[in-house]
Amino acid sequence: MNSKESCRSELRIAIRQLSDRCLYTASKWAAEQLMGIEQDPANFTPSNTRFQWGSSSIRRRFRTNEITSTPIAGVSYVSTPVMEEDDAVDGDFYLLAKSYFDCREYRRAAHVLRDQTGKKSVFLRCYALYLAGEKRKEEEVIELEGPLGKSDSVNRELVSLERELSTLRKNGSIDPFGLYLYGLVLKEKGSENVARTVLVESVNSYPWNWNAWSELQSLCTTIDTLNSLNLNNHWMKDFFLASAYQEIRMHSESLAKYEYLQGTFGYSNYIQAQIAKAQYSLREFQQVETIFEELLRNDPYRVEDMDMYSNVLYANECSSALSYLAHRVFMTDKYRPESCCIIGNYYSLKGQHEKSVMYFRRALKLNKNYLSAWTLMGHEYIEMKNTPAAVDAYRRAIDINPCDYRAWYGLGQAYEMMGMPFYALHYFRKSVFLQPNDSRLWISMAHCYECDQLRMLEEAIKCYRRAANCNDREAIALHQLAKLQYELGRPEEAAFYYKKDLERMEAEEREGPNMVEALLYLATYYKTQKRFEEAEVYCTRLLDFTGPEKETAKSLLRGMRTTQSGFPSMDVEHFSP
Question: Is there a contact between 501 and 518 (Cβ–Cβ < 8 Å)?
Fold first, then answer.
């Protein structure tokens, strides 16, 4: 059996097992990967699949090698034994409990299974108690603080669950699903090291539970922690590492892993979406937009991850496309946090910031831990000049994920607006530590160093240099470097950066005040250096503009001709940026 057939067989069994234990998110994920495996050509007909061979331009773009029949690239495969079920032990009780569970009657489900000893029943009883505790915790938060309030409420079932699951683990009478729940409980109680150990045991015993991998990933915030995990060499490990690399900002490594996985899961929408996320973090917006367009063609009712697509459309100011996307998700499922964020982005692009905030708040009422909504709401409050509200929103985002560079950057902007540059610098430094390849962050920090309260121009120059080396799309860094070097009395360095800025503007076919300024400085500089031929080239180009710079260029040309003819020149310094 080749690796594709092995993956397909394993996933089919896993989907049934995960659904039977009410782990529906993990079951859905597994089913999506099952559909992502290339169909067997012998069984392939257009009627039994929505994909066609070679139809995905994204797949062709990101695949590094063509698929061959054998050997199959793309997965690391080690056989894992299938779990034995214990349906015969407590089947009828389990069916009733599962029905209650599916109706969100968690305590009734746990009560039905109180005397059942099978591993599957023990897991469902404990899982039902855990969710009952979570439900009650959320109710207490709303009762005490409102839907977006902070509260010290805790899940009151955690202590008893930890005690029971710990005993089962010591006795060796716990299955991989019980280990997953035990790891979840330990994580909630703050015992992260033990939680990592338990979750590793769970995924090594049963690697198809994506929920367990996701919880394990949330406990791996550094590459050292990730490398310390003793994981079996199963193909699910590749999915885990790709996702973990993305979370710890190793975007290129994450992208390489997903491209590798496409060797087997070539039609996986999940992998395409994750590739889009990695490209988004690398600011390759054009490729991200193309991927999401393809995703929507394959899965027109998809809402998951579409808020990222809306961010790209917002950044590119694609108003009509964003309007269409907002209408589409509204008609599909308007009470999803992603839908609310997309609609919020649409109103923000239209300049209706109050309405935008309303939709971000609605997203948070649906899921108060939805990170993007807090960050985007903070941006809206910045636009509305409501800095206290912006600071609160950004801090809530950081509470959820301390590695979110956008929230740190937002805090820097807020404190800069409040005239507190030292605080702003602290937060900008946090943001560039987390996202060192984003030129916008370095430029913001440079602006902060330039402010009247600091005037730390050498530090600003260092920041602008970093920005220039990080593919400064806004073309700000080179121009600012030239101006600062001129201000510090370094004409040669200023000429160097003005020339580089001019070359970039020519390559991008841009004109404007910055081009005029660069041409004027270079003409003046080369005249001063008595390099008249080069100075004349820049002066001649200035003659094409209409404005005072044209007269200045004529004056410079007259001065140079006078100097070359042997008469003293009465010209004075013409340049002032």
Answer: yes
- Encode pLDDT of 29-67 as tens digits: 999 999 988 765 555 444 444 444 334 444 444 443 333
Whether 412 contacts 428, CB under 8 Å? yes
Over the stretch 85-126, which tens digit does the pLDDT of each residue have? 555 456 889 999 999 999 999 999 999 999 888 899 999 999
Reported as a pLDDT band with limits 50, 70 and 90, residue 161 is very high
Q: Other C-beta atoms within 10 Å of 365: how many?
A: 17
Task: List Cα–Cα distances, 271 to 59, 60, 216, 382, in angstroms.
Answer: 10, 13, 19, 34
Residue from 523, 430, 514, 422 nearest 472 by CA: 514
Rounded to 10 deg, the angle between the 210-218 and 24-36 helix axes is 110
| 444 burial type by CB count under 10 A (0-12 exposed, 13-18 middle, 19+ buried) | buried
Written as six digits, the tokens of 16 are 């049934």
| Token pair 């009410």 in the structure block, residue | 22
- Cα separations (Å) of 385 from 376, 403, 419, 552? 14, 25, 13, 41
Classify residue 73 by its DSSP letter. P
Tokens representing residue 36 in the block: 């992502």
Report the C-alpha gap between 484 and 458 in whole angstroms: 9
Read off the pLDDT band of 395 (50, 70, 90): very high
Contact 511, 533 (CB under 8 A): no
For the chain, the straight-line distance linking the first and the last C-alpha, in angstroms and rounded, comes to 71
The percentage of the chain sitting over the pLDDT mark of 70, rounded to a whole number, equals 87
Helical (H) or strand (E) element with 477: helix 477-487
Closest CA to 381 of 391, 396, 369: 391
Torsions phi, psi of 250, nearest 5? -95, 70
- How far CA 409 is from CA of 279, 405, 432, 495, 545, in Å, comes to 20, 6, 8, 32, 39
Q: Residue with structure tokens 């059942």?
A: 116
Confidence of residue 364 (pLDDT cuts 50, 70, 90): very high
B/e letters for 347-364, b = 16+ CB within 10 Å, e = fewer, are: bbbeeebeebbbbbbbbb
